[in-house]
């Protein structure tokens, strides 16, 4: 059968229906991401470098995106109450991240959680950008030297991103974002300015201490 050269027109009502459906789906996606990105809790880390106070990092937690990750402090497998007070930031990669949260060995080699050694990844819907707080996982080193996160190996360690770069965005789908820095990025950058170090690998003495930590009341503008 020969095809007619005449083009059949699509009714205007169909175009409008398609456009409306697309808009609805787009809006639903935006609404979902906005809902997941809402701050549900607010916590602080008071930082000392070489024994001198340098300021406070204020973090908003995304409890709707990662309720297990942002759960209340509790008892770890060793029977001790888990909190970050008295622990060090144990690793810095300039232009990328600062890392802390080792409540076991306090050098970046250990982890614990209220669920045991490790717990499963939650939601990967929130993305990595400047000032994001995300979970540290165990990593495999690939043949090309790249680091690949191991699935479902979350513990107590976390990192804060110090830049918005392709490398930072490459963390999406591997690490669970559970919060963002509300204020105190100047303190984050003071830690970054110390240069690259990794206490777990070098055995060096801790310099960046979380002198105090805790939860603060939520203000209306953050809800």
TrEMBL record:
Record organism: Eleusine coracana subsp. coracana
Protein's UniProt name: Peptidyl-prolyl cis-trans isomerase
Main enzyme class: isomerase
InterPro entries the record matches: Cyclophilin-like_dom_sf, Cyclophilin-type_PPIase, Cyclophilin-type_PPIase_dom
Domain of life: Eukaryota
Catalytic activity field: [protein]-peptidylproline (omega=180) = [protein]-peptidylproline (omega=0)
UniProt cross-references to PROSITE patterns, sorted A to Z: CSA_PPIASE_2
EC number of the protein: 5.2.1.8
Keyword Isomerase: yes
Molecular function GO terms recorded: cyclosporin A binding; peptidyl-prolyl cis-trans isomerase activity
Function: PPIases accelerate the folding of proteins. It catalyzes the cis-trans isomerization of proline imidic peptide bonds in oligopeptides.
Ranges for domain PPIase cyclophilin-type: 44-215
Regions crossing the membrane: none
UniProt signal peptide: 1-28
Record's GO cellular component terms: cytoplasm
Lineage of origin: Eukaryota, Viridiplantae, Streptophyta, Embryophyta, Tracheophyta
Recorded family membership: Belongs to the cyclophilin-type PPIase family.
GO BP field: protein folding
Any single Pfam family the record assigns to this protein: Pro_isomerase
Keywords (A to Z) from UniProt: Isomerase, Rotamase, Signal
